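Read as chain and fold; for instance:
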Amino acid sequence: MALPAARPGHAVRVVRVAPPPRVGAANLRLANTRLLPGDVPSREPGCENFSRRKQSMTTEFPLLGEHAYVAYIQKLDSMGANSTTHIAEVRYPVQAAPVLSVVKFLDPNCLAASNEAIAWLFLRAAGFVAPRHAAILALSAKKARDVVGKKAFDESLVTQDCVIAWASQKLDFKSIRAYFAGTRADAEWIGLLRTLHGAQIAAFDEVFLNADRNTGNVLYSGRDSCIPIDHEQIFDHQDWIGGNIMASTRDSDSLRVIKRAYDGGALSLGAYNDIKNKMVHHAQQHESALAACKDQISKLIAKVFKDGSATFEERILSFAAERTAEHWMETRLGVV
């Protein structure tokens, strides 16, 4: 099934400054992706990380048609989740058997779905624990309506009789928000930000200006372990289809939480500086991680967007290159 054309003037929380291009056609039928040799599975079920060995990431990100959506399982009841988010069986190119996955329908202009894929590629290249399988799906409008029910279905998600979806392998963990109620969830997130995993997430969020990191978008896998999810709103909500990604003095959500905790006394000066030093430590891997996945990002953008892909690629990669450069994080955080 082909990716539909982007609908002019239709976007989620973005300001369009130019007519959108047409999204590439006939791109979701086949995706001959192979599991990278030497992939090191983490201890987390359904996860992989690449921290033990540098990988050359050369396979293409899978863009799949309706044939890959095997079966609806159940609605995902999670506070703050996209109302279309559900559990389904999805068949990925590298896995013969269907994989239990989290699936959500996204804006038809493919901006959010592309952001999810860009983040997934970078996170894996940078050594994060991440779902082993992920893909962008194009479903028929009929199939999408059947999945969530006609009454609940948002018709604005449809363009050219297609609905765009993001799918990633379901992990056996709940979000911090699902485990802990109210202010306890906030306190747990601050505590996790002091760990290596938490500071790693904060460093990623700052590089990609993630404007949607909250306790519902971090999976809790232990006292010193967590996994980032939901990256539709990297680049600070900016619409790189309609214009350049502008440099910003705004902090990512994670850094705002860290600064607020320090200002409010929840973090001592020593703990505050320790988090920033950990972020700088993780940032040392960012330049090589971008180099490892930039070809995949380029191919992804070229496959999703028929027109303007070279421009979009340049906007994304130039922004990321500046913020993954050596010493950028030290300068950003004021670490000497």
Observations:
- Residues 1 and 65 are 5 Å apart (CA to CA).
- Confidence is low (pLDDT under 50) at residues 5-45, 50-56.
